[in-house]
Amino acid sequence: MALREIITLPDPRLRKVSEPVARIDAEIQQLLDDMLETMYEAPGIGLAAIQVAVPKRIVVVDIGKTEEERNPLFLINPEIVWASEEFSSYNEGCLSVPDYFDDVKRPAMVKVRHLDRKGETVEFDAAGLLATVVQHELEHLDGGLFIDNLSRLKRERVVKKFTKAARFDEIAAQRRAEGAAREAEKAEA
């Protein structure tokens, strides 16, 4: 297993629609293992493949609070086949929108159909936190982020903040590289 880099807003790859998995081979199995390790390390309770720059319809979820409670779900080509008319609201965050949390209203219960690691079709019912996490992660597969469910004003404020931070990081990296180049020139002289 290997840790993968989690891409963050404003990276445009987060807005890509993920492609269905045609075959569950060793590469997909490795991706599932890497995603799970990456999610636990972050730490998070859900991760979509697109968040590690792989545009495949794959999600890993584990809402266990401790190592003893861990029960990972591997969802390949998942789809919501039923959603309740009743809604619930959770304070959501996202590994791709670090350190930002806000209340999001979603269906309180869903039925999910997906392929498991063996390629078998599985269905399960989810309620509460699990329903919220599954819906949040499946949203990623269609190029969505949880901030898309916020008011336009809040969403624009968040995007602006992350875009500004990304520009600052680029400038800082460029300045560090220029400084290192100057030091190397001095050392050669």
CATH C-level of the largest domain:
Alpha Beta
CATH superfamily of the largest domain: Peptide deformylase
Q: What string gives the helices and strands in order? A: HEEEEEEEHH
**Biggest β-sheet: strands ordered side by side in the sheet:** 1-2-3-6-7
Which descriptors apply to this entry?
5-stranded antiparallel sheet; globular; Peptide Deformylase; EC 3.5.1.88; 189 residues; alpha+beta; peptide deformylase activity; 7 strands; 3 helices; two-stranded antiparallel sheet; Peptide_deformylase; single chain; 2 domains
Give a quick rundown of the structure.
The protein has 189 residues and is α+β, with helices and mostly antiparallel strands. It has helices spanning 26-41, 128-141, 152-188; strands spanning 46-48, 58-61, 73-83, 87-94, 97-107, 109-115, 121-127. InterPro entries: Peptide_deformylase, Peptide_deformylase_sf.
Secondary structure elements and pairings:
Layout: H1 26-41, E1 46-48, E2 58-61, E3 73-83, E4 87-94, E5 97-107, E6 109-115, E7 121-127, H2 128-141, H3 152-188
Antiparallel strand pairs: 1-2, 2-3, 3-6, 4-5, 6-7
Can you give a write-up of this model?
The protein has 189 residues and is α+β, with helices and mostly antiparallel strands. It folds into two domains: 12-149, Alpha-Beta Complex (Peptide Deformylase), CATH 3.90.45.10; 151-189. 35% of the residues lie in helices and 27% in strands. The protein has helices spanning 26-41, 128-141, 152-188, and strands spanning 46-48, 58-61, 73-83, 87-94, 97-107, 109-115, 121-127. A five-stranded antiparallel β-sheet has the order 1-2-3-6-7. Strands 4-5 form a two-stranded antiparallel sheet. A hairpin with a 5-residue loop joins strand 6 (109-115) and strand 7. The radius of gyration is 19 Å and the shape is globular. The N and C termini lie far apart (45 Å). The model has no long low-confidence stretch (mean pLDDT 94). It holds the Pfam family Pep_deformylase. Fe cation binds at residues 94, 136, 140. Removes the formyl group from the N-terminal Met of newly synthesized proteins. Requires at least a dipeptide for an efficient rate of reaction. N-terminal L-methionine is a prerequisite for activity but the enzyme has broad specificity at other positions. The active site is at 137. One of its GO terms (molecular function) is peptide deformylase activity.
